[in-house]
Specification:
Length: 812
């Protein structure tokens, strides 16, 4: 087998009818995949805020490629990791494939459509139209690979490698793969399994003959034994490589399929919870959407790896893909970094949430979608849970329980070695009864009292009330059968059931599949207290495009609608912002998790200090981790200190501003009223009267200057490679100046192109595709794609400031 990077030399333009093409004057744009066609479109207040005010759109991707004459005797496949959405694939104008699900990987057998010995064409059509509750993007936003195989070959993507029996002395490795014979004669070949360690050395192997009938398939099963195995875990994500190759006699292998292999054992029970390799693990989880901030939804290997590394550095050990099949690149990153995965397939089944969502194809495509997810992802050691949905109303009735059972049975048939769950929101599961009660005035008034923004508006208006409804007998009865189909009961905003279900359902194992970010100080002790609760997944770990402003500060007297008005762009509810930098909530969570001894200081934005902030279900306090303010001395400030010590002291310069209670009894939070002064602000945490840690914020000194600081001084010339370059306003000591923002222009020279440039500003009117952007809280992020070997220079300039630059070396 030979694989070719098929990401280059594409064009994209609006999708129009064949008749409209006769008069089409718009010239298609030359692009390199992956590509989000929607992120560069103009936003408008007339478009839905859930999609970040981007328009609907239809796009056509075109490419020509040479097909050698010798491919006539080969099997040629195109492998798409994801096209959003309703992809239509045409090869030489012949219809080759349709893929409804915008997140599912799919393979297209190209051979029947090819013309050999000359240039061929491919067209991929994609579209988006009010089909998601978040920004979904559009186009071929993940990688495409061209595989050229012999007519006798391993079926693409169908290899399954498991480790069913592990102990300290050896690990049993079983590999199964279907082999297809598209020739006209029955063939006998040898299949060989090879296991290599991280250094590339062969540590185990097995081989056997296999006969495949003409025009048919046969399953090869091989078994090898790895002595004294290195086990994969969150703390030590050791990876082997497994490969099955086919050969005839002593000839060189003519086909091969490779996967990474993590040897690890999973166990699950209500007394010990989740165990990995015999050790109990609590899931410190983050829900994440699939976009990559300034890149839109375009998926690059380096973008996914950076995201997972930063989430792990922030204290998370697990992620939940909300609410879609994850990219291959992200799964590879999770394997490499040591991040556990809840792999989710759907946001809807048969009950609509958006006008043109995937309910319209669910009945016909769910088996295909489940197969695509599980067949690809079952070889990733990071994947421990498959989630079949998110807040599905059907989970509250017997017919929905039947759908759940069918989906879970399909998953178990494909992969019996991982567990199943579903993010069930009890409130949503009994929504039909809730609406009836609201209409009768039982829940908040008469028939006109229901919030206009839908289910999320109701959830946002009364989090405590919804939690109590979640523990009601009505929810207990209506969800029992759906939960019984699963290995793990996923509870969205249902922490009130943790203790209750231990009594009602002693064999039920629970995971907090989605929780309010501000409840972690309450939820995490519950997770630790109850062995049957596996962990907590906050909404969300990383800010995302769409569902605009659901985490914004809410002020008394304001319109409390769930979503903000244009020009809001992001949800503003992540522990990390869309550029990957940590917000105050992230440090609070790290302290609650018990992973940070030092306290943390967050300062209320002075311009909003006089306003009364209302508690928002997905919001955090209106704070910044900065003491670099352009204020008159003595200006009143509110300072929050997060600490797990039982007491915390705040110092302004050498002057103590007093001590307050902190730690678990105070919700890990102490507040101080401070008169501003341009001196160091230091928090000291004490435990039993002894200092346990300290943290200092510095004021800004002098005028700000530009700094350009690439996250790495070297980059690879490879598929998926990116260069990340933070551009900041700093003082003479390197302190980030958050109180003054400036438009900054950048210029790129050398073998790289700019693929994204912008800030984390949640209400941004600027686009991410220009070379000029305004800082937010003193920071911008430029993202470049290497295009060749050599030195890349990134130069930044702003009015009134000295220019700054940096270089990055790109090598093969």
């Amino acid at each position: 087998m030979t694989s070719y990077d098929f990401n280059h030399d594409w064009t994209v333009g609006p999708q129009v009818s064949p008749f409209a093409r006769l008069t089409q004057t718009t010239k298609p744009k030359q692009i390199t995949l992956p590509h989000d066609a929607l992120i560069s479109e103009p936003r408008s207040a007339d478009n839905p805020g859930k999609g970040a005010f981007f328009p609907s759109g239809g796009y056509a991707y075109n490419k020509t490629f040479d097909v050698p004459e010798e491919w006539r005797s080969k099997s040629v496949w195109l492998r798409f990791d994801g096209v959003y959405r309703d992809a239509m694939v045409f090869i030489n104008d012949g219809f080759a494939a349709h893929q409804a699900n915008g997140y599912a990987p799919f393979d297209v057998l190209a051979s029947p459509f090819l013309v050999y010995g000359q240039s061929n064409s491919i067209r991929v059509e994609a579209r988006t139209h009010d089909d998601s509750r978040w920004y979904a993007g559009a186009g071929i936003y993940r990688d495409v690979v061209l595989d050229v195989r012999e007519l006798l070959h391993i079926v693409p993507g169908a290899i399954h490698v498991t480790t069913p029996d592990i102990d300290a002395e050896r690990a049993v490795v079983e590999a199964v793969a279907p082999v297809a014979n598209r020739t006209n004669e029955t063939r006998t070949v040898r299949a060989r399994l090879t296991i290599r360690d991280a250094s590339g050395g062969v540590v185990a192997s097995d081989d056997a003959p296999i006969t495949i009938p003409a025009g048919g398939e046969a399953i090869v099963r091989l078994r090898a034994y790895v002595a004294v195995p290195n086990l994969w875990s969150v703390d030590d994500p050791y990876l082997y490589a497994a490969a099955i190759e086919l050969r005839e006699g002593d000839a060189v292998a003519f086909d091969e399929e490779r996967v990474s292999l993590g040897i690890r054992a999973l166990q699950l029970d209500p007394k010990r919870g989740l165990s990995i390799n015999g050790e109990s693990v609590k899931l410190r989880g983050a829900c994440i959407h699939h976009d990559n901030g300034v890149l839109g939804t375009a998926v690059y290997a380096d973008a996914e790896l950076r995201k997972i590394r930063k989430l792990k550095e922030a204290g998370f050990n697990a992620i939940r893909s909300a609410h879609n099949i994850m990219s291959t690149a992200m799964l590879d990153a999770c394997d490499e970094v040591g991040m556990l995965v809840m792999d989710e397939v759907y946001d809807v089944w048969t009950v609509q949430k958006s006008s043109f969502d995937s309910t319209i194809s669910f009945a016909e495509s769910w088996v295909k979608d489940i197969d695509a997810m599980v067949r690809r992802d079952r070889n990733h050691p990071s994947v421990i849970l498959y989630s079949i949905g998110n807040e599905i109303p059907e989970t509250g009735n017997r017919h929905g329980a039947g759908i759940s059972r069918a989906m879970v049975d399909r998953i178990r048939a494909l992969d019996p070695h991982r567990y199943t769950t579903n993010g069930v929101n009890g409130f949503v599961s009994v929504l039909d009864d809730v609406l009836k009660m609201m209409a009768m005035g039982v829940m908040g008034g008469g028939e006109d009292s229901a919030p206009s923004g839908g289910v999320n508006d109701v959830m946002a208006s009364s989090a405590d009330g919804m939690n109590q409804l979640n523990r009601s007998d009505l929810v207990t009865r209506r969800t029992e059968e759906a939960f019984a189909t699963l290995d793990v009961a996923g509870l969205n905003y249902g922490d009130a059931r943790y203790a209750l279900d231990a009594d009602l359902f002693p064999n039920r194992i629970i995971v907090g599949s989605e929780t309010y970010p501000g409840r972690i100080a309450t939820n995490w002790p519950l997770v630790l207290e109850h062995s049957h609760v596996l962990g907590d997944f906050t909404w969300v770990g990383w800010d995302y495009l769409g569902e605009v402003g659901i985490g914004r500060p809410r002020w008394e007297g304001e319109d409390l609608a769930l979503e903000a008005e244009y020009p809001w762009l992001t949800a503003w509810t992540g522990d990390l912002d869309i550029t990957g930098f940590r917000r105050p909530a992230s440090f609070f969570r790290e302290i609650v998790f018990g992973l940070r001894a030092e306290p943390y200081i967050a300062v209320r934005r002075p311009q909003n200090r006089h306003l009364r902030q209302l508690t928002g279900t997905w919001s955090w306090s209106d704070t910044v981790g900065s003491w670099a303010w352009d204020l008159e001395p003595g200006s009143p400030m509110t300072v929050e200190v997060y600490a797990d010590g039982d007491e915390v002291e705040l110092l302004l310069g050498d002057t103590s501003l007093g001590r307050q209670q902190a730690g678990v009894d105070a919700g890990y939070l102490a507040r101080f009223d401070v008169a501003y002064a341009a001196s160091d602000l230091t928090a000291v945490s004490y435990r039993d009267g002894v200092e346990a840690g300290r943290f200092t914020l510095h004021p800004a000194v002098g005028e700000p200057s530009l700094t350009v600081t690439p996250e790495s001084q070297a980059a690879r010339l490879a598929t998926g490679s990116l260069i990340y370059v933070p551009i900041e306003l700093t003082d003479t000591a390197g302190t980030l100046v958050t109180s003054v923002d400036r438009p900054v222009s950048i210029e790129i020279s050398g073998p790289a192109e700019l693929v994204g440039y912008g800030s984390a500003r949640p209400d941004n009117v600027e686009t991410y595709g220009q070379t000029r952007h305004t800082t937010f809280e003193g920071r911008l992020l430029a993202v470049l794609r290497p295009t060749g070997e050599g030195s890349v220079r990134i130069a930044a300039s702003a009015e009134g400031l000295a220019p700054a630059d940096a270089t990055v070396a790109v090598t093969a």
